[in-house]
Amino acid sequence: MRFGFIGSYGTPAEHVRLARECEEHGWDGFFTWDGVSLDAEGFDAHPTWDPFSLLAAAAAVTERISLGAMVFAVPRRRPWELAQQALTIDHLSGGRLVLPVGVGVDIDRAFTSVGGQPRTLRDRARAMDEVLAWLERSWSGAPFEHDGEHVRTGTFQLPQPPVNGRIPVWPVAVWDAERPPRRSLDRALRWDGIVPQVRGESPEDAEAGPDAVRDLVAWIAEQRGTDGAGKPFDVVVQGRLDADPAVAAEQARTMADAGATWWLESWWDPTNVTADFLLERVRQGPPPA
Fold it and tell me: 42, 25 in Cβ contact below 8 A?
């Protein structure tokens, strides 16, 4: 299992420093986040930054770690701009970009205060599928057109493909062992990984625990069958490692044994998480094997 760290708060310079320190202290990935203007208590004290600008700077000061954002709000992005931004970071980093993607949140004024944006969950999901389809077609290097419900374009061509032929895409999907929600799960199966959420009343409740991950991994193996054998597929979980290295190591072992391939250290409480706190946690490094 690999370990990433989410830079939830701080100035642009603090984000870049955090990315550099992630590489220096043994983490496998640095992730920022994608929001514009959040209508939620506590978040007004924390400015938001363009994730691709931060990742470009992070790519310039690192050599090894994966780079991404948790998560890119795909439905509010123009596909040709997203494709160009992602391709630029991919080449700047030597193929280290990953794309965790989701439908966005309804507290972001970039959805609620802008006309013409898809507003309902259903419309945002459909828009995301079309943007992702456009993105994948752009990686072929061949000319193409798209005529969909939310995305309609004439001929486009991006002649330079990603460094590794494609950029890994990890959609967010809801997991319920009793009644698997097929729409979001099937979307993840079409791509390169999954960021699972379980039904809950708070962000912490939505984090998938070891039992949920174990059930999900078994379900994924059954659905992919022999067609998925040998093809990489990431299961990306979020959580908070204990300050005690022994306890943190046990947390990691339990999640790895359940089948998770990535642990993303995530601290989101806007009332008490600071850039200094995040830097201190990064310097503790991931748990020992």
Answer: no
- Amino acid identity, position 39: D
Q: What is the pLDDT of residues 116-160, one digit of tens each?
A: 787 888 989 999 999 999 999 999 999 999 998 889 999 999 999
The CA–CA distances, whole Å, from 213 to 1, 98, 182, 192 equal 13, 21, 16, 17
**Strand 66-69 to strand 99-102: parallel, antiparallel, or no bridges (unpaired)?**
unpaired
Parallel, antiparallel, or unpaired: how do β-strands 29-32 and 193-198 relate?
A: unpaired
Q: Is the peptide bond before 71 cis (omega within 30 degrees of 0)?
A: yes
2, 5, 20, 70 from 29: Cα distances, Å:
8, 6, 10, 12
What is the pTM assigned to this prediction? Answer: 0.93
- C-alpha–C-alpha distance, residues 248 and 250, integer Å: 5
Name the residue ranges covered by the structural domains of the chain: 2-284
d(CA 81, CA 83) in angstroms, rounded, equals 5
Q: What angle do CA 29, 91, 138 make, to 5 degrees?
A: 110
2-284 belongs to which CATH class?
Answer: alpha beta
